[in-house]
Amino acid sequence: MRIGRSHRRLHDLERLDPATDYEHIGRVVGTLEFPWDLQQALSFALFRTYAVPTIGGLLYDTGEFEHRAQKRHDDTVLILDAVAVDGLESDDGRAAVRAMNRMHGHYDISNDDMRYVLSTFVVTPIRWIAAYGWRRQSRVEVDAAVHYYVRLGRLMGIRDLPETYEAFADLMDAYEREHFRPDRRTRVVADSTLDLLTTFYPRPMRRVIRGFSIAILDPHLREALGYPAPSRLARGASVGALKLRGRVVSLLPARRRPQYARDLKRIRSYPGGYLVEQLGTFA
C-alpha cells in the first residue's frame, strides 16, 4: 500500500497550457494542493509591502489597519478570493476588480508601488511553497501564476508588468533594496496586523504566534519594520515547524474538497453574508 500524497493532480496540471489555463491551474493549486500555504503566503506578501513607506504610510494615514484591522483583512481576503475562485471574467470577479480599482482610485498611488505589490503576490507564494510546501511546484504552476497576475494587473491598470517569474522576482528584490527603510507609521500598521493575526489563535498561544511570525520574516524586512532579530533557536524552531508541517502533509491523503478563503472562521466581518461589489474601504 502506497503511503503519502498522490501526485496525480500535478501530472494532470502539467498537461495544461499555463498561458491559457492559468485560472484553472490556480484554482487547483490554491484550493486543493496548497490552500493553507497560499493563504499564509499571501498574508506575508501583503505584510512585506508595509516596509515601503509610501505604501505603509498611506495605509497608516487611512486609519483602517489601526482601527478596523479585521474588516480591512476580511475585505482583502474576500476580494482576492472572488477573483481567484469565481474567475477574472465572472460577474463577481469583475465586481471584485472594480472594488479594488475604486479603492485605489481614491489615493495617489504610483504605478511603481502598484507593480511592486503585485510582484509580492507572484513571488512570495512561490518562494513560500518552495521552502515549506509538501512538494515543489512545477514550472507549469509557476508560469500559470505569472499569467494570472499579469492579467489581473492589466485589469487594474498597472503598466509595464514583467512577463516571467524571474523578472517579477528581480523587480521585487530590487524594489525592496531601494525602498525598504524604517518608518514609525509602517511599524504601527505592522503591529496592528500582527495583533489581529494573534486573535486567530487561542489566547495562551498568542505571544508564541507573534514571536513565530516575526522569526520567519526575511531579515531585511524585519529590520525595516524595526523588529528585533530572533534568537537562533527561535528562528530554527519556527522554520523547522513549517518544514515539518510540509512533511506531515505529504503523508496525508490528497484533499478532496476545495478549501476556500471565504469559508475560514477568521473571516468575521460579514456574519449575514456580503455582496462582492460592496466590499472594501473608501475615503
Supply the key terms:
283 residues; mainly alpha; 14 helices
Number of self-contained structural domains: 1
Helix content: 55-70%
| Distance N to C terminus | 59 Å
Q: Any low-confidence stretches, pLDDT <50, length ≥5? A: none
Q: Can you tell me the overall shape?
A: globular
Write the element-wise H/E pattern from the N-terminal end onward.
HHHHHHHHHHHHHH
| Cα gyration radius (Å) | 18 Å
The overall pLDDT average reads 94
Largest sheet: none
Beta-strand proportion: under 5%
Number of helices: 14
> How many E strands?
0
Name the structural class. mainly alpha
Polypeptide structure, described:
The chain is mainly α and 283 residues long. It has one domain (10-269). The protein contains 14 helices and no strands. The model has no long low-confidence stretch (mean pLDDT 94).
Question: Secondary-structure map with pairings?
Answer:
Elements: H1 8-13, H2 22-33, H3 35-49, H4 53-62, H5 64-67, H6 69-86, H7 91-105, H8 111-132, H9 139-155, H10 165-179, H11 184-198, H12 206-215, H13 219-225, H14 232-250
Helix pairs in contact: 2-3, 2-9, 3-8, 4-11, 6-7, 8-9, 8-10, 11-12, 12-14
In short:
With 283 residues, this protein is mostly helical. The chain contains 14 helices and no strands. It has one domain (10-269).
